């Protein structure tokens, strides 16, 4: 299945409905991407105003999930789609759920920016948190691009990026644990930084999920809980 396949129905209205759904997923993805970028920036720069913006905008992400989900349900009931169209709607419903959860993680990071009391204790980690945020944001953008292009092979490449993100996350966690052992005054702030890092690691996991949905959409194969080698084979249709 490719992105042109959804424009081959006799019903022009049906084509429009499916294209509208895809466009709304991309709009929601763009909004969530910005939430992640702003959340990390608010934490690293100590920008409480920007953190408030992220927290206050979370309802918009939630509203988009509800609206797209309702639209999918209407199409399912009215059109009774099969094959590729059904996979598209299933992939959309799963993708918007992960996007909503990514929005929640961004909100959580922004709240950390508001709650960290002694920022001097964790200043040394700002560079690494920023780098972790860049890796997570890159994965999210890549996952959305694979969805837009319906590119299964690209989805595997984006999925693979999660290995780098996990390695960076493990390194930050080790350093934070060392910090807390050396100076117990740093424990409250270090724990907040740990939770922020954990949120970014989860964003990578959810971007990886979206890549798996793309492979399901394009190849019709559920690659969840399979090895990377199996996923690559399915993506290449071997």
TrEMBL record:
The keyword Transport applies. GO terms for cellular component: cytoplasm. Residues 26-112, 129-214 form the PhoU domain. This is Phosphate-specific transport system accessory protein PhoU. It comes from Thiohalobacter thiocyanaticus. One of its GO terms (biological process) is negative regulation of phosphate metabolic process. Homodimer. Keywords: Cytoplasm, Phosphate transport, Transport. It is found in: Cytoplasm. Coiled coil: none annotated. Pfam families: PhoU (PF01895). Belongs to the PhoU family. Plays a role in the regulation of phosphate uptake. InterPro entries: PhoU, PhoU-like_sf, PhoU_dom.
């Amino acid at each position: 299945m490719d992105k042109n396949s959804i424009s081959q129905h006799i019903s022009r209205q049906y084509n429009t409905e499916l294209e509208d759904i895809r466009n709304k997923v991309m709009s929601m993805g763009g909004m969530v991407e910005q939430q992640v970028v702003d959340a990390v920036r608010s934490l690293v720069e100590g920008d409480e105003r920007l953190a408030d913006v992220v927290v206050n905008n979370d309802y918009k992400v939630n509203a988009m999930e509800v609206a797209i989900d309702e639209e999918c349900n209407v199409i399912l009931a009215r059109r009774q789609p099969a094959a590729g169209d059904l996979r598209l709607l299933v992939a959309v419903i799963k993708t918007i759920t992960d996007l909503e959860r990514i929005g929640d993680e961004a909100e959580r990071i922004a709240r950390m920016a508001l709650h960290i009391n002694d920022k001097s204790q964790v200043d040394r980690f700002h560079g690494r948190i920023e780098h972790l945020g860049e890796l997570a944001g890159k994965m999210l953008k890549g996952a959305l691009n694979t969805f837009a292009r319906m590119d299964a092979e690209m989805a595997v490449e984006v999925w693979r990026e999660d290995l780098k993100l996990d390695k960076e996350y493990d390194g930050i966690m080790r350093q934070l644990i060392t910090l807390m052992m050396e100076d117990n005054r740093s424990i409250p702030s270090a724990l907040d930084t740990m939770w922020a890092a954990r949120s970014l690691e989860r964003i990578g996991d959810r971007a990886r999920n979206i890549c798996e949905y793309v492979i399901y959409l394009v190849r019709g194969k559920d690659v969840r809980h399979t090895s990377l080698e199996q996923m690559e084979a399915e993506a290449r249709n071997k």
